[in-house]
């Protein structure tokens, strides 16, 4: 039976500021990418989100980013490779330690925002991220990355298990990269459109997809998550956390 994971960015509130519909989204997704304090999240938010994810039996991953809370991690930053390595290592280790303290385990790592987009094309950035994952989690953690990206290929070269990610609620350019968020209509906010795009990926034998990403920080997020999951199930595809069925 065809299987797919549904992942969502989460734990992106900070202090008195609340962002996203985390608990409602947890009812529809199988994996979550938790902010580690650099673009969003704080120790209390991280802890509370971990506890909720474990309650809903949702797999947990780290979502490291550039140190850019003002820009929500969506601005490119020029950094030395070693600084990126240590920055990512720090964030992964922080989340892994908290997840372990609450009796769970960390399934995956998915870079956030500009760091993710940079690692898609920049082998230096990609290698720094991969080396940080290997140092902290060794080969026991899945790397989420787009198909045909520097990040995916370097993950494979370093022996990391990888999961190919596609986006249900982001539009794509002809070259297979994401439409920049600075452009109009970069984000799909209509549940039916997001579900149709996801099903196109899953039906296309020439495309690999292990995990579908949806975002929880816009007003239709819960409706998209609900319709997406039910649409996938209605097409005979099993929805389950990638770590349960992809070999590590």
Task: Describe the model.
By secondary structure, this protein is α/β, with parallel strands linked by helices. The protein has one domain (3-244): Glycoside hydrolase/deacetylase (TIM Barrel), CATH 3.20.20. Helices cover 40% and strands 15% of the residues. The chain contains 8 helices and 8 strands. A 7-stranded parallel beta barrel has the order 1-2-3-4-5-6-7, surrounded by 4 helices. Strand 1 (3-10), helix 1 (22-26) and strand 2 form a beta-alpha-beta unit. Helix 3 packs parallel to helix 5 (123-137), helix 5 crosses helix 6 and helix 7 (191-203) runs parallel beside helix 8 (221-234). The two termini are 19 Å apart. It holds the Pfam family LamB_YcsF.
Question: What's this model, at a glance?
Answer:
By secondary structure, the chain is α/β, with parallel strands linked by helices.
Question: How are the SSEs ordered, and which strands pair?
Answer:
Elements lengths: L2 E8 L11 H5 L4 E5 L7 H13 L3 E5 L17 H21 L4 E4 L3 H9 L1 H15 L4 E4 L4 H8 L4 E6 L23 H13 L7 E4 L6 H14 L3 E2 L9
Helix pairs in contact: 3-5, 4-5, 5-6, 7-8
List keywords for this structure.
alpha/beta, TIM Barrel, seven-stranded parallel barrel, single chain, about 15% strand, 8 helices
How many helices? The count is 8
Topology pattern, helix = H, strand = E: EHEHEHEHHEHEHEHE
Q: Describe the oligomeric state of these chains in a short phrase.
A: single chain
Which fold name corresponds to the CATH topology? TIM Barrel
Beta-strand percentage range: 15-25%
Shape: globular
Q: What structural class do the secondary elements suggest?
A: alpha/beta
End-to-end CA span? 19 Å
Q: Please give the radius of gyration in angstroms.
A: 16 Å
Order of strands across the biggest sheet? 1-2-3-4-5-6-7
Q: Residue ranges: pLDDT <50 for 5 or more in a row?
A: none
CATH architecture: Alpha-Beta Barrel
Q: Count up the domains.
A: 1
CATH top level label: Alpha Beta
Could you estimate the helical fraction of the residues in percent?
Answer: 25-40%
Largest beta-sheet characterization: 7 strands, parallel, barrel
């Amino acid at each position: 039976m065809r299987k797919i994971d549904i992942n969502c960015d989460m734990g992106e509130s900070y202090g008195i500021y609340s962002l996203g519909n985390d608990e409602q989204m947890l009812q529809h997704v199988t994996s979550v990418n938790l902010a580690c304090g650099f673009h969003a999240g704080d120790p209390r938010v991280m802890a509370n989100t971990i506890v909720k994810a474990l309650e809903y039996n949702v797999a947990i991953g780290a979502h490291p980013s550039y140190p850019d809370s003002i820009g929500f991690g969506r601005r490119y930053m020029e950094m030395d490779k070693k600084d990126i390595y240590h920055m990512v290592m720090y964030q992964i280790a922080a989340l892994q330690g908290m997840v372990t303290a609450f009796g769970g385990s960390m399934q995956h790592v998915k870079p956030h925002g500009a760091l993710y987009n940079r690692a898609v094309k920049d082998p230096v950035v990609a290698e720094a991220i991969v080396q940080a994952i290997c140092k902290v989690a060794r080969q026991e953690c899945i790397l989420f990355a787009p198909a045909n990206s520097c990040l995916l290929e370097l993950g494979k070269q370093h022996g990391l298990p990888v999961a190919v990610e596609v986006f249900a609620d982001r539009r794509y350019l002809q070259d297979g990269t994401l439409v920049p968020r600075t452009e109009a209509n970069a984000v799909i906010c209509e549940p039916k459109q997001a579900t149709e795009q996801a099903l196109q990926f899953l039906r296309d034998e020439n495309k690999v997809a292990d995990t579908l990403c949806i975002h929880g920080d816009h007003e239709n997020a819960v409706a998209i998550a609900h319709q997406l999951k039910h649409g996938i199930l209605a097409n005979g595809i099993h929805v389950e956390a990638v770590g349960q069925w992809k070999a590590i």
